[in-house]
UniProtKB/TrEMBL annotation:
Key words of the record: Hydrolase, Iron, Metal-binding
Family in the record: Belongs to the cyclic nucleotide phosphodiesterase class-III family.
Keyword Metal-binding: yes
Xref: InterPro entries: Calcineurin-like_PHP (IPR004843), CNP_phosphodiesterase-III (IPR050884), Metallo-depent_PP-like (IPR029052)
GO MF terms, alphabetically ordered: hydrolase activity; metal ion binding
Name of the protein in its database record: 3',5'-cyclic adenosine monophosphate phosphodiesterase CpdA
Keyword Iron: yes
Gene transcribed to yield this protein: cpdA
Domain Calcineurin-like phosphoesterase: residue ranges: 4-205
Length: 262
């Protein structure tokens, strides 16, 4: 059985508010009486994609001092910038290609995929990333189930896109979701070992399906999205930062639980 903590959309920007909200979630996770196997961070880690923001993220997430009690696995979002992300967060040489990584556990694997398009808000898994997913799963020989994690949900979450100019504005997440979802659906058809997908971006906890697999959207740390029936103000900045726990059991079934950091 694999137990994963999941946070998303920290939007660290150098302000005390953003840092403190991220630290509240970090403190809850670091203080758990039981151990989780890893922490997934599904993008928009920085707000402006600067090295300073990623250095702050590395400190908060315990990536430099060994402070994290379990592996911390990350992938970029649309607010992230690949070269500073690699240099200041991952301590790797700066480069502009997709930031993809895999972590193999005893009974499962997690593929952290880059769905960002530099300079754009919407997302896409490009040809290089799809090829990497296929090759990575081939290397696993189908011996263990796998989860895909990336930033942009591939389905509508029922928060409408912007209205035409002059009629008001209602942004994200549906206006900026994952492009070419049919390509992802075809991948899932070929790959029964993929047990589910986890994403971020929407700033609201959500659970649905995509191409017959579980799709779980993690809540946002920086603020929570109000859905249309909850009010006109889009961002609830007073809601406590959220997190999720995903359990992939021995039968390959994904179960998710949502919490807030008070």
């Amino acid at each position: 059985m694999l137990v994963l903590a999941h946070i998303s959309d920290l939007h660290l920007d150098g302000t005390e508010r953003a840092t403190r909200r991220a630290e509240r979630v970090r403190d809850l996770l670091w203080g758990l009486p039981g151990r989780v196997d890893a922490l997934l961070v599904t993008g928009d880690i920085a707000d402006h994609g600067t090295e300073d923001e990623y250095e702050e993220a590395a400190r908060v997430l315990g990536l430099r001092d060994g402070g994290a009690p379990f592996p911390v696995l990350t992938c970029p979002g649309n607010h992230d910038s690949r070269a500073p992300y690699r240099k200041a967060l991952l301590a790797e040489p700066a480069a502009d290609g997709p930031v993809n990584s895999v972590h193999v556990f005893t009974d499962a694997a997690v593929l952290m995929c880059d769905s960002s398009i530099p300079g754009r808000d919407e997302g896409e898994l490009d040809a290089q990333t799809y090829a990497w997913i296929e090759e990575t799963l081939d290397d696993l020989d189908g011996d263990r189930p796998a989860l895909l994690a990336f930033h942009h949900p591939p389905v509508a979450l029922h928060h409408p896109p912007p209205l035409p100019k002059g009629r008001g504005r209602c942004p994200q997440p549906d206006a900026y979701r994952l492009g070419r979802p049919a390509a992802l659906a075809r991948l899932l058809e070929r790959r029964p070992e993929i047990a589910g997908i986890v994403t971020g971006h929407a700033h609201t906890p959500a659970a649905t399906t995509f191409a017959g697999r579980p799709l779980v959207v993690g809540p946002g740390v920086t603020w929570t999205l109000r859905l249309p029936w909850e009010g006109e103000q889009i961002a609830d900045r007073e809601a406590p930062p959220g997190l999720a726990f995903h359990v992939l059991d021995d039968e390959g079934r994904l179960t998710s639980h949502f919490r807030v950091a008070s």
